[in-house]
Amino acid sequence: MTAQHSLFPVQMTATWQEPSSVIVSNTLRDWLLDPASLTARLKKHSEQFRVAVLGQAIEACSDIEANADILAGEQVLVREVLLYCDEVPQVFARSLLPLSSLTGEQQQLAHLGTQSLGQVLFNHPDLVRKKIEVAAFDQQSSVAKIAEHLSLKVLQPMWGRRSVFVLDAKPLMVAEVFLPGAFAYQE
Question: Topology of domain 23-185, per CATH?
Answer without folding.
Answer: Chorismate lyase (3.40.1410)
